[in-house]
Amino acid sequence: MRENIEYKPLTPQYDAALAKLIRSALKAFCLDIPGTVYFDENLEHLSQFYSSDGRCYCILLQNGAFIGGVGLSEFDGDCCELQKLYLSDAAKGQGLGYDMIAHIESRAREMGYKRMYVETHSNLQAAIHIYEKAGYTEIARPKSVVHSTMNKFYIKNL
């Protein structure tokens, strides 16, 4: 783990900051449109969503300040979905995205998942690069895609 970096479970005190980070990032890539997480009803209360069995969300703090987060949720049997990996602009370029993926994959293994799925959009080239470099393989669009605007899909055996 990098110095002054810590992961903590998402709590209600970080819900607003996380929703703001997610909306800001999506808007920056012209994805503040229907069919993305931007309009999810539960975006303002993600700590509640991720408190259910089979799900978890970890926020990332640097020197005690919130800089991002990453989560997972059940997807299909022994497969979970990597969800909502976001970093503040100031935290980008430090390799933290790779650390966050490794952290959430470890949590997934602890929870008994064998595979991890992720969906993204072709506008998010940096995310695509990170997923591919982290060992995710592109697959055809699954039947059960919640965010209809997403157009790139990946899977990885854990």
**CATH homolog superfamily:** Gcn5-related N-acetyltransferase (GNAT)
Helix content: 25-40%
Overall form: globular
**Proper CATH architecture:** 3-Layer(aba) Sandwich
Q: Under CATH, the topology is which?
A: Aminopeptidase
Mean pLDDT: 92
End-to-end span in angstroms? Answer: 20 Å
Residue windows where pLDDT falls under 50 for at least 5 positions? none
Radius of gyration from CA coordinates: 14 Å
Number of domains: 1
Q: How many β-strand runs? A: 7
Structural class: alpha+beta
The major β-sheet equals:
7 strands, mixed
Which band does the percent of strand residues land in?
A: 25-35%
CATH class: Alpha Beta
- List the total number of helices: 4
Description:
With 158 residues, this protein is an alpha+beta fold. The protein has a single domain (5-157), classed as Gcn5-related N-acetyltransferase (GNAT) (Aminopeptidase), CATH 3.40.630. Helices cover 27% and strands 30% of the residues. The chain contains 4 helices and 7 strands; from the N terminus they run E-H-H-E-E-E-H-E-H-E-E. The protein has a 7-stranded mixed β-sheet with strand order 1-2-3-4-5-7-6, with helices on both faces.
